[in-house]
Amino acid sequence: MAAPKQDIVRDKRDEFAFHDDLVYLKQVKRGLSRETVEEISAIKGEPQWMHDYRIRSYEHFLKRPMPTWGGDLTKIDFDKIVYYRKPSEREEKSWDDVPDQIKKTFEKLGIPEAERKFLAGVGAQYDSEVVYHSVKEELSKLGVVFMGTDQGLKEYPEIFKKYFGTVVPPEDNKFSALNAAVWSGGSFVYVPPGVDVPLPLQAYFRINGENTGQFERTLIVVDEGASVHYIEGCTAPLYATDALHVAVVEVIALPKAKVRYTTIQNWSNDVYNLVTKRAHAHEDATVEWIDANTGSRLTMKYPSIYLRGKRATADIISVAVAGKGQHQDTGAKAVHLAADTKSRIVSKSVSKDGGRTSYRGQLKVAPGATNVVASVRCDALMLDDVSRSDTYPYIDIQEDDTSMSHEATVGRISQDQVFYLMSRGLTENESQNLIVQGFLEVFTKELPMEYAIEFNRLVKLEMEGGVG
Amino acid sequence: MTDTHLLAAATEATARRLSADLEEPDWLLDERLDAVRRVADLPDETNTLWTTYLDLRPVRFDDVTTYEAVDGGLVQLAAEDERLPDGAAALIHITDGRVVGRVRSAAAQAAGVFVGTFAEALAEPRLARAFRSAVLGGKSIAADDRFGQVSRAIASIGVFVHVPDGVELSGPVVVRWSVDEPARAVVSRTVVVLGERARAGLLEELEGPDVGAMQAPEAAPAAAVAQNQWWGTTEAVLGDGSALDVAGLQDFGPSTVGFVSRTAITGRDAALTWALAHVGGAWSKSRIDNHLVGQGSSVHQAEIAFGGASQIVDLSSYTHHVGTDTTGDLLSKGVFQDRARAYIKGLIRIDRSAHGTDSYLGEFGMLLAKKARSVTIPSLEIDQPDVRRASHASSVAPIDESQVFYAMTRGLSEDEARKAITLAFLEPVVARIPLLAVQERLRERLEVKWVEAHGGMVEHAASEGMLTGSTAA
Known about the structure:
The complex is a heterodimer.
Chain A: E1 26-27, H1 34-44, H2 48-63, E2 85-86, H3 100-109, H4 113-118, E3 121-126, E4 129-135, H5 137-142, E5 145-148, H6 149-155, H7 157-163, H8 174-182, E6 187-191, E7 201-206, E8 217-222, E9 227-235, E10 243-245, E11 248-253, E12 258-267, E13 271-281, E14 286-295, E15 298-301, E16 304-307, E17 313-322, E18 327-336, E19 342-351, E20 356-365, E21 373-382, E22 388-397, E23 403-412, H9 415-423, H10 428-439, H11 441-444, H12 449-465
Parallel strand pairs in A: 3-7, 6-8, 7-9, 8-11, 9-12, 10-13, 11-13, 12-14, 13-15, 13-16, 14-17, 15-18, 16-18, 17-19, 18-20, 19-21, 20-22, 21-23
Antiparallel strand pairs in A: 1-2, 3-4, 5-6
Helix pairs in contact in A: 1-2, 2-8, 9-10, 10-12
Chain B: H1 12-21, H2 26-41, E1 65-66, E2 90-95, E3 98-104, H3 106-110, E4 114-117, H4 118-122, H5 125-135, H6 146-154, E5 157-163, E6 168-178, E7 184-194, E8 199-207, E9 228-238, E10 243-251, E11 256-266, E12 271-278, E13 283-292, E14 298-307, E15 312-321, E16 327-336, E17 341-350, E18 357-367, E19 373-382, E20 387-396, H7 401-409, H8 414-430, H9 436-454
């Protein structure tokens, strides 16, 4: 059966394209070399250990072969990437000090000024450096640290050094090595023991400038019994040449801590998005990844939770939408290393217009992790027959009292449902849109209201954008 | 393993020598030479999803030597009088490097069913044509299956089964392989061709040196005996409207390593079933490739594995939907105790051409010991969303305690309850083994295996007489 006919709607993505002609104050030359890494470290005036760490990582990056699995990485030209740009000299403390050009971009993004007051804190990343940061006074009073990662290294060297690179070492994979060599920007969060951060911490990330790499590094440490919800949202301008986003996110949930990390990611269709996200959950801790991937040419991202302490809980909801020319190779990992731990993985993907979604996940129960309960659920929706959907789950159980279940289904939109909605006055496109939104609701309902609205708008855009 | 040929013998020289000894036609030599090249070029596992889940360390490729060519001189067989198992249509029995028996029922003979060696088939034009068209160009063995290509390159014996158009066999054709001699490797192929609307069963028995050894679970540990190996294929080609039921019972001895590659290509509306049990062997690899080409064709596959001691069981299966309205229904179940390890890998591939596919893959494990390990990788690759179903499910869980409790309320002891629940978990495949006697033998074997690890009594004991044609040659 042929693909259902859809309304031809013009591509609206360019409305969301940001490209302001910004004067960068500092920029290293294109390409990756030992000198580039040295220069980045020198510009930042880092301590010797970080300098050495970068060099060690760079050397590992060179040695490590490119992965042969997952998506097509052959088109990445590491010599064409600019590894560091600094748009303004210092971290801005107030909104008024933020350069006008950058403000304009944020306005296009639709962050109303009034909203800022509501937000617990805003760390905005414009290219490779945090340019705007406001942490509400009450958070400071609680002792919560929320700042750029570079600043965190300077101001909280003990906490930083104790945890940095402990969850994702440079040797983990080729791209974590690259990030460790050239990282810049990202968020540093520390929540002291017992503190319940009342509002989500939010950071907006942007790529601007052709071929600008983004190598942000986020480190979140949540101390005993504390809780926090961190949200990042990403969009990027459209460019013809390849952009590279290689981030590393490390989350440490100490005993009894609770962390939720929400991502809505919408890179432009030329971006390679290769992200290593991993959390350690200690005794009685809970970690939740709520992760959505739209846009980009290729995303390879598998948010992971290592359940290291007894009774720790992992919850991962992963959503991917792939349109024309896109490959979302995403998934999740839960690694049970301690007894009585629980994990749940839910993955939903939508592919259309020749896009490809791949679920790639791992569930591992190590020897000693007794009485584990784990479940994995993957559903894929294919909107036409030029798209592709793959499911690759790895399930490795080494304890005999594990209770694990896994299910996956792939299918298309039910024509009965479309017919019903059309009989209620919706167009075919609107009907499909609504069904897709319903399919993804398990994700959307976990989002704060304004993000849920934004995400549904994004899905709608994706649904309309590539048709034709 | 750094060897480039897996088996040292998988060389052009061996292929040429075997081909000459068997007086094979040039095209068959070319098949062998093509396979020698593939063996040299291919990685052990081409599927990058699975590369890290193939553990060949226990396999001693260098410690075995292969057999010389086994020719078609069946007419002079001393054991021509080997008993035909009750209900079977035919039997061919190969022990190590020799054909020790072959017999066909009167009905099978009358219908023109052929069971014999490649060499014999090639001597008869009608069979030669069917054989050639089934295997030409390597199409009946997966091109990326390095282990299957070893058989294609240097098989010293080939078994060919041919069921003509419209022939319906009531009982299965039994192909029995006994592996006995230490430090040797049997390398073989089995090709099964069913004509249009033909119906047949195939029972493959892979057995160890001494069936009686099961009575003595405390037998000497495997390490004392040199490893031996069995390499083989089942290459099934199903004509339009045909039906083939394959049952496979692998019960090698404890020092045997097995490499089994099975493929099937289905014609229009053809129906294929596999019922496979993996019980014995020190290390056992099985790969199945189902190519559902003909419109409306189907495969139902049920596999069980019962691993104990330090056994490694490596099962992979591909279901490739090509034609429209095809059905794939695959079920793998495993029970693993002691230090056994299992890798159960599956991939459903639905091509863009395969509208109306119904495909399901289930992989279920039960771990009975702390040191046992189960890896399951049920994957999907889908290019055509116009499916009736495309899904998989997997679970690993211990014995359900509420079932144990229920069985105990009905008067079973706890041990009996656990045993009964475990064996019942595997029963769906056991029940699909065609010959009752073989079915009973498998049930007993599974029970013995349970008792070896958990103690207790073997209650099921099939009477001696039921061990059909048990030929410890």
